[in-house]
Amino acid sequence: MKNAFDYETSVTRNSGYITAETQAKIRKTKLLIAGCGIGSSPAVCAARMGFENFVLVDGDVVDAHNLNRQFYDFADIGKPKVAALKDKILRINPQAKVEAIEAYLDADNTQEIVGKADIVFDTVDFLDLPAILRLHDSAKKHKAHIFTALSVGFGALVWYFPAESSLTLTDILAPDITGVSAGGAVPSYADVFASFIQRLAPHLDAEVVEQVTKVLTMMKDGKPCPASQVAVGSFAIGAMAMSMMHDLLAGNPIPSAPKLVLHSFRSYQTQIVDVSTSQPA
Predict the structure, then answer these.
(1) C-alpha–C-alpha distance, residues 81 and 100, integer Å
(2) Tens of pLDDT along 88-128?
(3) HEC letters along 256-278
(4) Based on the number of CB atoms within 10 Å of its own CB, is 91 exposed (0-12), middle (13-18) or buried (19 or more)?
């Protein structure tokens, strides 16, 4: 005999930590996961927390080197990430509504896709700067909340941009873009990311700065070099993001841009970092 899924039973152990009112908001909120690599972590965490309306977008397939940190199995290798992640969500909640879009975000599809969501979760590759900026601009236009996250070694960084905020990611990255353009040079996305990381460097673990610098240097030399990431960072993104999304829906205050939340399991510290007070070297 098959077990029948019951939503209330599936979230009953949330009681005491999540109010009935907030749980109802979680249930009806539509969540866009933009980038289903590291984004698989918050997606699975969200499904277990009671979210049941998802839009998944990514054009990539599961590769063997993803398994050390992303929520996929050996049997998923070669499958589109959106299809494999949809399956994971439906195994948790078979009644969930999951739209899987096998595509990369571009100038033609971003506005329409973002318009489907109440909250956008961005784990688009930071080196694809145009895609990220389009995503943020579209979220602002559609008045959607947006969270941006990075795995940083044995830790994670989560950045929240409220729907009503006048501050944009373009505003925050302007010093980095201007700095690397000095002298008339055309900045590469790697240059902009390197400048941003240097602003964060005083708050990051030394090994994170070392590894990111190494990857960016190799990329500038034209060598392929996938960035090192571990499961701890990926799982931390899911935990931090869902905690912040819960507080957003519960009406609790959460740090917002230009402030970001940074946690390290190396130093066992959580920091709230205001990037507007740090300028490129």
Answers:
(1) 9
(2) 999 999 999 999 999 999 999 999 999 999 999 999 987 78
(3) CCCEEEEEECCCCEEEEEEHHHC
(4) exposed
Paired tokens of 165: 């905020």
Q: What is the mean pLDDT of the chain?
A: 92
Contact 273, 168 (CB under 8 A): no
Closest by alpha carbon to 275, among 161, 123, 153? 161
Residue 252 covered by a domain:
yes
What is the value of pTM for the model shown? 0.93
Gap between the Cα atoms of 212 and 262, Å rounded: 16
Instruction: Decide: 119 and 145 in contact? Cβ < 8 Å.
Output: yes
| pLDDT tens digit sequence for 173-201 | 988 888 666 555 556 778 888 889 999 99
| Structural domain containing residue 98 | 23-166+227-274
Cβ neighbours of residue 5 closer than 8 Å, sequence gap 6 or more: 93, 94, 95
Rounded Cα–Cα distance for residues 162 and 151 (Å): 21
Please report whether residue 204 resides in a domain.
Answer: no
Domains held by the chain: number: 1
Residue 121, sorted as left (phi over 0), alpha (psi -120 to 50) or beta, turns out to be: beta
Whether 57 maps to a domain, the answer reads yes
State phi, psi for 261 to the nearest 5 degrees.
Answer: -105, 130
Measure the CA–CA gap between 92 and 109, rounded to whole angstroms. Answer: 29
CATH code of the domain covering residue 147? 3.40.50.720
**Cα angle 104, 110, 115; round to 5:** 130
40 located within any domain:
yes
